[in-house]
Amino acid sequence: MGIAQAGAALEELCRRVATGPERTAITAQGEVLAVLISPEELADLEDDLAIAQNRLNEVLGSPEPVLTLDELSAELAAADNDDEEAQGR
Description:
By secondary structure, this protein is α+β, with helices and mostly antiparallel strands. Helix 3 packs antiparallel against helix 4 (69-86). The protein has a two-stranded antiparallel ribbon with strand order 1-2. 62% of the residues lie in helices and 12% in strands. It is elongated, with a radius of gyration of 18 Å. The chain folds into two domains: 3-37, no CATH class; 40-86, no CATH class. The longest helix is centred in the middle third of the chain and has 22 residues, at 39-60. It has helices at 3-8, 10-18, 39-60, 69-86, and strands at residues 24-28, 31-36.
């Protein structure tokens, strides 16, 4: 979707993305400038990245602390709870 068209329909795009698994790419001159995704999908991607980074640290023997999956899951859950409390949920 072009940037001008996206600007005119931003509220509707945000509602569609927030209520389903839809992603919307916003383009200018055929180049993707941004992608709209739901907050839940962003949180899932961030969780997946944290897990992958933790596993990479473990494989590489990084001096960074390596958490067990249970410890990492607990930390991610605590962070999600903190985010929800900050947003007044």
